[in-house]
Write a structure and sequence with these properties.
Number of helices: 8
Largest sheet: 3 strands, antiparallel
Number of strands: 3
Strand content: under 5%
Length: 184
């Protein structure tokens, strides 16, 4: 794994687990020194995070963890419902034992995090569940759109949402898994 990948993964995880809150400055020099890389490489990391919708970069200013507005929040959740409806439709059409195995393993990770009281990890895993479903459709474009919208929704929930309930996410994901298994 390259230094860029390591920094990207660590920062993405910190943002999604809300260790880095919306609006937090992300100076290139601090990222560079923190991950033992040049500012140029740090800039690449920030560009990847910007592509994912997690970071905002304004000309002449430090990058910041994205801070979506309330109107963006409404739009994001509307689009997410639409995209996830398509994801579910495609999963139902192509449900397989391999998909079941992968999804069940992810739900077990969520259960472990919830039982251990690791709320931040649970938040990240709950979002990754939806991304995993989108990836299972086989559509790279759909997976990319769902990834960005889920990332943005995580930021929105950090800013405006109610506290995350790990038990609720796990039970809802388990119920969805059961529906896929039974063809319901």
């Amino acid at each position: 794994m390259s230094r860029i990948d390591i920094a990207y993964t660590a920062l993405r995880q910190a943002i999604l687990e809300q260790a880095l809150e919306p609006g937090t400055k992300l100076p290139e020099d601090a990222i560079g020194s923190g991950f033992d890389m040049s500012r140029t490489l740090a800039r690449e990391v920030l560009a990847k995070l910007q592509f994912d919708g997690l970071v905002e970069i304004k000309r002449g200013r430090s990058a910041r963890v994205a801070r979506p507005s309330l109107s963006e929040a409404d739009d994001n959740f509307h689009l997410r419902r639409t995209l996830e409806g398509e994801v579910v439709r495609r999963i139902i059409e192509h449900w397989s034992p391999d998909m079941a195995k992968d999804l069940k393993a992810h739900i077990q990770e969520e259960e472990i995090a919830a039982k251990a009281g690791k709320a931040r990890v649970s938040i990240r895993l709950a979002g990754e569940f939806h991304i995993k479903l989108a990836e299972m459709t086989g559509s790279q474009l759909l997976a990319r759109f769902v990834t960005e919208i889920v990332n943005r929704c995580s930021l929105i929930l950090a800013l405006y949402g109610r506290p995350h309930s790990p038990e609720c996410a796990v039970s809802e994901h388990s119920a969805l898994f059961d529906a896929f298994e039974t063809g319901d």
